[in-house]
């Protein structure tokens, strides 16, 4: 019988709405990063990264406010390839 898995980390554990609120507090309302992070429940460094991204892109433009974990994916589950196929063909190249 399978056991229930508990997360050991809170990495990526924020919503798009939380990030929008945090970035808006810092950029538009001139609140400090640490206060905005505390108010929205987002880690300070994460909020700083998204605020910098927003300022670089421009205040009126929209940016991705969620993590992009798909870019770090190694194995892509497909009907034609599974992890054994990938391991067999990638270890010798």
Structure description:
It is found in: Nucleus. InterPro entries: Homeodomain-like_sf (IPR009057), HTH_Psq (IPR007889). Pfam families: HTH_psq (PF05225). Keywords: DNA-binding. Residues 15-51 form the HTH psq-type domain. By secondary structure, this protein is mostly helical. The chain has a domain at 15-65: Arc Repressor Mutant, subunit A. 45% of the residues lie in helices and 0% in strands. It contains four helices and no strands. The chain has helices at 16-27, 33-40, 44-57, 83-90. Helix 1 (16-27) runs antiparallel to helix 2 and helix 1 crosses helix 3 (44-57). The longest helix is centred in the middle third of the chain and has 14 residues, at 44-57. The protein is elongated. The model has no long low-confidence stretch (mean pLDDT 80).
Question: Short summary of the structure?
Answer:
By secondary structure, the protein is mostly helical.
Describe the sheet with the most strands.
Answer: none
In one word, what is the shape?
A: elongated
How much of the sequence is in beta strands?
A: under 5%
The helix/strand order is HHHH
- Structural class determined from secondary elements: mainly alpha
The portion of residues assigned to helices is 40-55%
Number of strands: 0
Mean pLDDT score: 80
CATH class division of the domain at 15-65: Mainly Alpha
Radius of gyration: 19 Å
Distance from first to last alpha carbon: 38 Å
**CATH topology of the domain at 15-65, anyone?**
Arc Repressor Mutant, subunit A
CATH architect. name of the domain at 15-65 = Orthogonal Bundle
Uncertain stretches: none
Count of DSSP-assigned helices:
4
């Amino acid at each position: 019988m399978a056991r229930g898995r508990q997360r050991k980390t809170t990495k990526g554990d924020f919503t798009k709405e939380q990030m929008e609120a945090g970035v808006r507090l810092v950029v538009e309302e001139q609140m400090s990063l640490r206060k905005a992070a505390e108010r929205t429940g987002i880690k300070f460094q994460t909020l700083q990264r998204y605020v910098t991204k927003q300022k670089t892109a421009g205040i009126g433009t929209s940016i991705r406010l969620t993590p992009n974990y798909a870019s770090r994916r190694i194995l892509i589950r497909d009907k034609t390839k599974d992890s054994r196929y990938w391991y067999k063909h990638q270890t010798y190249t």
